[in-house]
Amino acid sequence: MQLFPCPFCGPRDETEFHYGGDAGNARPDGAEVPIERWANYLYLRANPKGTAREIWVHTSCGEFFVMERDSVTHKVLSSTALGGERAA
Prior knowledge:
The strands form two sheets. A four-stranded antiparallel sheet has the order 3-4-5-6, with no helix packed on it. The two termini are about 20 Å apart. It contains one helix and six strands; from the N terminus they run βββαβββ. The longest helix is centred in the middle third of the chain and has 9 residues, at about 35-45. It has one domain: Folate-binding superfamily (Folate-binding fold, 2-Layer Sandwich), CATH 3.30.2270.10. A hairpin with a 4-residue loop joins strand 4 and strand 5. Helices cover about 10% and strands about 40% of the residues. The protein is mainly β. InterPro entries: SoxD (IPR006279), SoxD_sf (IPR038561). It comes from Mesorhizobium huakuii.
């Protein structure tokens, strides 16, 4: 079991969290977006080893936040509320 740091509630069991996607993957804007651009948004991702920035939600408090973690070791490097607060 792994502990994830919620910026609002502190360290909690990983089962209390839900992955929301890569941080910085901006959704295409507008109805007239070419199908290729939608496909790139939905399916094409870089998957480098090392630091990953991800959106997570803590299902207990309902807050979304950005977590940086190492994709090889799964060590959590930081946890930041979308409003800018840092986790302890």
